UniProtKB/TrEMBL annotation:
It holds the Pfam family RibD_C. This is Dihydrofolate reductase family protein. SUPFAM superfamilies: Dihydrofolate reductase-like. Residues 4-165 form the Bacterial bifunctional deaminase-reductase C-terminal domain.
């Protein structure tokens, strides 16, 4: 059985996007980018909120020869994985290997986990919070950026309670820090 992991970059004060949706402070350097690519390499299916999907769909069409190596490797991987986008705002999706759903369904997520030994990744703080409440979330990976942004979109919604067990940490020369946690299920 696979697992469901949530990965995101966060400011030190817990935001994945700052005021007005800005996140330039979270842009990874090549060292962080390579680490995240390796972390997500085993993932075969990504579950996305609309905002995350819209931010990432550029990787479907960008010419590979124009990209530096870490970006090229990410683009190739992104094109090869299956993607499910949860949104009512779109009636269809335009990227390869992508399906659309109106809402997150815990039973469907469990079937996806049961059908593979590979991990699935979930992107978007609200979507990850919904999955956590449904008991579906197994791991949380956060790359903490050396920034405090004072507000914006939270890593998780502010009413979620999770018990976590730290199992991995990694410091980067740029001041970013990776923290890997297992979710303790009751």
């Amino acid at each position: 059985m696979g697992s469901l992991i949530y990965f995101n970059t966060s400011s030190l004060d817990g935001y994945i996007a700052g005021p007005f949706g800005r996140w330039e402070w979270a842009t990874p350097d090549p060292e962080v980018h390579a680490f995240v690519d390796e972390l997500l390499a085993p993932v075969t299916t990504h579950l996305y909120s609309l905002k995350v999907y819209e931010a990432l769909k550029v990787w479907d069409d960008v010419p590979l020869e124009d990209l530096p190596t870490p970006d090229r490797e990410f683009a190739v991987r992104w094109r090869e994985v299956d993607k499910i986008v949860y949104t009512r705002k779109l009636t269809s999706v335009s990227t390869s290997r992508t399906e659309r759903r109106d809402t997150f369904d815990g039973d469907e997520a469990q079937r996806l986990k049961d059908a593979t030994a590979a991990p699935l990744a979930i992107g978007g703080g609200q979507l990850a919070s919904i999955a956590a409440r449904a008991g579906m979330l197994d791991e949380v990976h956060v790359v903490v950026a050396p920034a405090v942004v004072g507000g914006g979109i939270r890593l998780f919604d502010n009413t979620l309670r999770l018990d976590l067990e730290l199992f991995d940490e990694h410091r980067f020369s740029s001041g970013f820090v990776h923290l890997g946690y297992r979710v303790r299920h009751a």
